[in-house]
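Checked the freezer inventory, then went back to the computational side. Two predictions to log before the end of the day. The first one is the construct we discussed on Monday; recording sequence and tokens without edits.
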Amino acid sequence: MLFCSCGVGSSGRRDVPGCDCSVLDPRYPETRRFIIGAWVRAVRDWDLDGFKLDFIDRFETNGTFCDGMDCYSVEDAAE
């Protein structure tokens, strides 16, 4: 599975305290494949002429590096 960060589960999703949400961690290659696949399907299936991702300008990490991650930096993983 690609949801959960170190200490929380298997690989990729981290719950955000006080936010009632979770975050996908792109340092896992399967998480990046999942996210990119979702974007590609949206563009293809909805016949979009363009696609803009907004508010992806701040990255946080819990400072851990876990088995399965292939990037230490979230910024590097999100490129």
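The second is the one RB wanted added to the comparison set:
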Amino acid sequence: MLLYNITISLDNEICEECILWLKTDIIPLIMQTGYFTSFQMWKLLLAEEQENTTYALQFQCENPALLNDYLKKWAPTFQAKIDEKYKDKYVIFRTLLEEVK
């Protein structure tokens, strides 16, 4: 099992709107691609006030071949959608984690 983690740091001015958009529009579309078995969203808790808020979007995937297929076929489309809507208002990076048994 793999965990595809997308960490996104949003400017506070767009945070609520963007999270709602992700939850209602983008995440359902990603899940409909059929590449992922589950999804969770986490908010990073910070002790100090920040100018941005950070979230981790975690998608579980069965194997590397499926994830690579998703990354080639679908990831650029979703990246373009967020760029179109929130360009220069966020920072994003992705990590891949493997379950330790």
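For RB: The two ends are 10 Å apart (CA to CA). The CA atoms of residues 71 and 77 lie 10 Å apart. Let me know if you want it refolded.
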